[in-house]
Specification:
The chain has 426 residues and is of the alpha/beta class. Helices cover 45% and strands 16% of the residues. The strands form 2 sheets. It has a 7-stranded mixed beta sheet, sandwiched between helices. The protein has a 5-stranded mixed beta sheet with strand order 1-2-4-3-5. Helix 3 (96-112) packs across helix 14 (403-422). The radius of gyration is 20 Å and the shape is globular. The two termini are 27 Å apart. The chain binds nicotinamide-adenine-dinucleotide.
């Protein structure tokens, strides 16, 4: 099989690992953009494959003295527009294919919103909830040490993703800095503000989701919202949409889903924080994960994992607008069905770009030793998000594309242009 034989079908394959399905979806979307832009086969091959992929074995000493070994990954998909940028995921199902897909989406996302980065992603196949804090710290530091040859403020800058947070970034920054012999705050973003993290980074992805949703909705007042995934992105997206006047009726996390005519999102956040999840929240009814995705709402925000809206459930999805807080939540098969149903989808590479935008602002502050106010950060974020939304919307309207097709055409087109200008060495 050559790399040009990658699948370009719209249907997932039964039994195929989720990571491979995500990579197939990413390659399908790329193939569509390549066709639209009229790029040649050689460039298509280059864009369909990552520049560098590193697989590492990470030994972890458990509290009882046993040693376990987990697999870790760091993939740099494309470096043509600047250093690689992308989060690190700790999740038991993560694999090289998934990390590659996520790195590819990062490339188009950075190009789409006009920040000077390529795309990367990292992951460790582990459930962080099964480790003690000390085990998690040891594992994180060892993983950081293993990927140290690839990362650095001028090379590749990690950030939080599923299962990782500010503390993870603090450990990585410290490990890298100890090895370097001096403090290197710009090696990661999404770190605590005490260590050079940016004001506004913690809520940046969710703020971007809110900005994108409101740009599409026009008026927020009374619009109903369901949010899948009540983690770093989903919980604050629900909060910001409620703050703007939307009526949040349902939220879910890995352990369950809840519904009420009007959820008090701040109260649900406090309750979930104290009780380890949303199930059992006293002022709402329990619903199933599937029911949440199929609610008759104005806005559905998938903010958990890939491949949750599929060819199987898309015909039952009633939301008028889908704002992809997560990366890759909608399969190509679902995309076709939802487009036929008249559902508008604000694609991941646009909808959740707020995180990487403020990561970029954090990195600029670190490398220039600046410190911007929360207001300055928010203004810059809003400007970049709204500008990208307008560009995508205009191209989609002018050329009869979906917002996803338009977003990919712009992102892939900018990366292709960077390759054309730089030429091929040697
Ligand atoms: P997180 O680990 O903080 O939260 C993930 C949430 O999803 C948790 O509440 C978890 O319980 C829930 N979840 C998992 N499986 C679920 C299921 N089957 N049904 C319902 N909920 C489920 O992760 P996060 O950082 O919020 O990331 C969520 C998504 O947003 C991912 O796709 C990530 O790649 C994307 N994203 C994150 C950022 C960021 O800044 N953190 C930026 C851009 C995109």
């Amino acid at each position: 099989m050559t790399i040009m034989d990658f699948p370009t079908t719209t249907s997932g394959i039964q039994g195929m690992a989720p990571g491979q399905q995500a990579l197939d979806a990413a390659r399908f979307q790329l193939a569509e953009a390549v066709r639209f832009l009229g790029l040649d086969d050689g460039l298509h091959r280059m864009l369909a494959t990552p520049r560098r992929s590193l697989t590492v074995s990470v030994p972890v000493r458990r509290e009882d003295g046993r040693m376990e070994v987990v697999q870790g990954y760091r993939v740099q998909h494309n470096l043509s527009r600047g250093p690689a940028k992308g989060g690190i995921r700790f999740h038991p199902d993560t694999d090289l294919a998934e990390v590659t897909a996520l790195a590819m989406w990062m490339t188009w996302k950075c190009a789409l919103v006009g920040i000077p980065y390529g795309g990367a992603k990292g992951g460790v196949a582990v459930d962080p909830g099964t480790l003690t804090t000390r085990e998690l710290e040891r594992m994180t530091r060892r993983y950081a040490n293993e990927i140290q040859p690839l990362i650095g403020p001028e090379k590749d800058i990690p950030a939080p993703d599923v299962g990782t947070d500010e503390q993870t970034m603090a450990w990585i920054m410290d490990t890298y800095s100890v090895n370097a012999g001096y403090s290197v705050p710009g090696v990661v973003t999404g770190k605590p503000t005490t260590l050079g993290g940016s004001l506004g980074r913690a809520g940046a992805t969710s703020r971007g989701v809110q900005i994108a949703a409101l740009a599409a909705l026009g008026c927020a007042e009374g619009r109903t919202v369901a949010v899948q995934g009540f983690g770093k992105v989903g919980a604050l997206a629900a909060q910001y949409l409620a703050d703007a006047g939307c009526r949040v009726v349902a939220v879910s996390d890995a352990s369950g889903a809840i519904y009420s005519e009007r959820l008090d999102v701040a109260d649900v956040r406090a309750w979930a924080g104290a009780n380890g999840g949303v199930p059992g929240y006293p002022h709402a009814d329990a619903i199933t994960h599937d029911e949440l995705l199929e609610l008759d709402v104005d806005v559905l925000v998938p903010a958990a994992l890939e491949g949750v809206l599929t060819g199987a459930n898309a015909p039952r999805v009633k939301a008028r607008l889908i704002v992809e807080g997560a990366n890759g939540p909608t399969t190509p098969a679902a995309d076709l069905i939802l487009a036929d149903q008249g559902t508008t989808i604000i694609p991941d590479i646009l909808a959740n770009a707020g995180g990487v935008i403020v990561s970029y602002l954090e990195w600029v502050q670190n490398t220039q030793a600046y410190s911007w106010s929360a207001h300055e950060v928010e203004v810059k974020l809003r400007d970049l998000m709204e500008g990208a939304f307008r560009e995508v919307n205009t191209l989609a309207a002018d050329r009869g594309l979906t917002l996803r097709e338009a977003a990919h055409a712009i992102g892939v087109g900018r990366v292709a242009e960077a390759h054309r200008l730089r030429g091929l060495y040697p």
